[in-house]
Structure formats: C-alpha cells, structure tokens
Specification:
113 residues; mainly alpha
Length: 113
Amino acid sequence: MKLVRTIYLGLALSMGTIFAHHLAGGSFVNLPQFLLVAATTYAAGALLSKSEMQGPGLAAAIVLTQLLGHFALSSRYESSLVMYGSHLLFGLLGYFLLGYVEKLANWAFDHLV
C-alpha cells in the first residue's frame, strides 16, 4: 500500500502543480523543469506515505510542492495574482481530493482485498 500511496500522491501533486501553472497562463514545461517538479513531489509523496494523508502534513506537502513547482516552472515575468490564485485553487482542491482518495483506497483494501 505504501508504494501505491507514494505513486498516486506524487502523481497528483505533480499534475496539480503543472495544471495550476498552465491554467494561469504559465509557460510550457521542459524536461529539466518537469524533473525538478517530479522529484520534489515524489519526495513529498514518499514522506507522506508513511501514514494516512490528512491534516497538517498533507497541507504542508501541498503548499511546498505548489510553491516549489511555481518557482521551478516560472520565468521572471510569470508571477501574478492570477498565477498565485491558480496555485491556491489547485492546492485546496488537491487537499480535499487526496483526503477522499485515501479514504476510498482504505475502504477498498479493507472490503475488496
């Protein structure tokens, strides 16, 4: 379960950061930028996967990955209120969705496996 949790948490954090960035008009992601975002989010996923994803730990991981992702993906001229609002929106959505995914996964493993 830990490996599965790490993978989907890392993927969700990566995609949330990249989608938020592009929604606000950010530049396209090149390979070095993507690798930096992926490494950061998968590291956060590995740290969080030791326990259930909830509360302050999940919130801190989302804030960290959104901030680092924004700075890794942005040029000097891409910081705006729309950009920050987009990262905030996707951070909040990620917080609630990842909490529900965790509950659903736990239920599925308890009842179906």
